Amino acid sequence: xxxxxxxxxxxxxxxxxxxxxxxxxxxxxxxxxxxxxxxxxxxxxxxxxxxxxxxxxxxxxxxxxxxxxxxxxxxxxxxxxxxxxxxxxxxxxxxxxxxxxxxxxxxxxxxxxxxxxxxxxxxxxxxxxxxxxxxxxxxxxxxxxxxxxxxxxxxxxxxxxxxxxxxxxxxxxxxxxxxxxxxxxxxxxxxxxxxxxxxxxxxxxxxxxxxxxxxxxxxxxxxxxxxxxxxxxxxxxxxxxxxxxxxxxxxxxxxxxxxxxxxxxxxxxxxxxxxxxxxxxxxxxxxxxxxxxxxxxxxxxxxxxxxxxxxxxxxxxxxxxxxxxxxxxxxxxxxxxxxxxxxxxxxxxxxxxxxxxxxxxxxxxxxxxxxxxxxxxxxxxxxxxxxxxxxxxxxxxxxxxxxxxxxxxxxxxxxxxxxxxxxxxxxxxxxxxxxxxxxxxxxxxxxxxxxxxxxxxxxxxxxxxxxxxxxxxxxxxxxxxxxxxxxxxxxxxxxxxxxxxxxxxxxxxxxxxxxxxxxxxxxxxxxxxxxxxxxxxxxxx
Length: 541
Prior knowledge:
Elements: H1 18-26, E1 31-34, E2 40-43, H2 49-55, H3 58-65, E3 73-78, E4 81-87, E5 98-104, H4 109-118, H5 122-129, H6 137-187, H7 194-208, E6 211-218, E7 232-236, H8 243-247, E8 259-261, E9 275-282, E10 285-295, H9 304-348, H10 355-370, H11 374-386, H12 396-399, H13 407-413, H14 416-424, H15 434-438, H16 460-475, H17 486-496, H18 503-510, H19 515-536
Antiparallel strand pairs: 1-2, 1-5, 3-4, 4-5, 6-7, 6-10, 8-9, 9-10
């Protein structure tokens, strides 16, 4: 295809070649960039159509088609016509691309013949080439040196720009990494939100890396503490159903550092799709894996930068798991102590055996239905466990007395919220639940005890326990009456709404799933029956 068939290129200002052609234009010399095939790929306005036509002639194409050296040269295809040719290998990925400037010195009849044979008007072409003056041998050499210098300068500038862009990219990646590590480290101090933390880590790693998917799976074995047991989170192109396949990577070898697998069945989309696996270590053993794969971007190979990020985040997850495990151990120890206290209460009155645990369960379910989060509802649960601890200070004869209590006996019973408050007030871990212990016998209409509070002035924790306490009391057999049916209990709860109980909370219990309460009730009944059987069995001599 002849150059003159591409007239739009005569005014081209291509961003890639524009600066170089601008430099040539400063010398008022017609110039263009020729591709490996000899066609014009970029030019400025100084390249008249007649000159472009001349460049497309067979003799000129033959002159320009000869093998080029890596250094610039001045070609003289015929007397008086000079071509300054500068290789552009420093700037182009296509070998053979070159900058060509054309000029005349003292053209002879050969020039007119060349123009005529190529279809270019000799007079117009001569005028266009001599517009900036004759290009004698000395001027051609100077032009060649200047243009080659411009090529080297432009190459150096672009190399610097590439280096700067690379540095900027690295700086951005470093910032993203620091931000990621800082955010994860800050979030790791909240051991109560296990699902939230694990999802946060996986999604942030997915967003800050070129991995198409990131997954985290924790061991489901009974030895793992329950808040961590069997947890899994997957983000990215893999669906949640990939969690078992990620979990299977726990058998990839429990090395202390990351392992890069060249292929993982069910996770790699194609051969060579690498998967990086890092074990989560807690209490001296592997409790799960953090994995990532299907890396995108320019470099699809997992590198040390990728593995270091995965390893660093796995370290945070391991530390978080240690904190969760320790917190859960302390929680279980604390709850064990609290249950021991409630057991002491239950031991005084077999008719209230398991009462505190059932009240705690129902109060927590009410708290969740009311909109409390898991941590808040956990405190309500603990308050329910110890709400009757003050009965330790009430004589057993009063607690177990069948029939109606005297005024003095009832007055003694009414002291148990204050006794419980005094017992617990010096325990720092229980200070926030004291309002529930002290005020769980207040009435919504203000006729309760010990402070005769009413309405919303009664602490919410106490109002929740009051509903749960009333529900279990009517559902259980007491020394003075038999247990009531479920329908009758709920009817009484409804009737007491607004007088004894908070009406909003009384309505909530009507919609609760009480299967957990029933399971507890059955278990407590079995435990009580077993204890009575043992008491009735004569001991061997």
